[in-house]
Write a sequence for this structure.
């Protein structure tokens, strides 16, 4: 897991899509089995990777990874983070590394 690089919007949102699909599949399996066993396993297995991608997404915005702690502020923190996760990253390199998006051709 990489906590120090940058992640563009598509990297972040494809991970979120994968996570939602994995949780839906785990919930279906739990429903068939009648006990909640796979959903907690999926949640534990994806905890560190989701924190890593969130920190890298914040790095793309030239913000420190500590901003991920806004999740602990009810409602407002989550809204602020979603807005940031939807925002375009800084153009060109920043203190966290080079820009991973190709330069727009004019």
């Amino acid at each position: 897991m990489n906590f120090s690089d940058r992640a563009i919007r598509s990297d972040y949102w494809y991970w979120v899509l994968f996570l939602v699909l994995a949780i839906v599949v785990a919930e279906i399996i739990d429903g068939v089995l009648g006990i909640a066993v796979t959903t907690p396993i999926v949640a534990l297995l994806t905890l560190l990777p989701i924190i890593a991608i969130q920190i890298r997404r914040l790095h793309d915005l030239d913000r420190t990874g500590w901003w991920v702690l806004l999740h602990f502020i009810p409602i407002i923190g989550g809204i602020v983070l979603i807005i940031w996760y939807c925002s375009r990253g800084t153009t060109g390199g920043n203190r966290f590394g080079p820009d991973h998006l190709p330069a727009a051709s004019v």
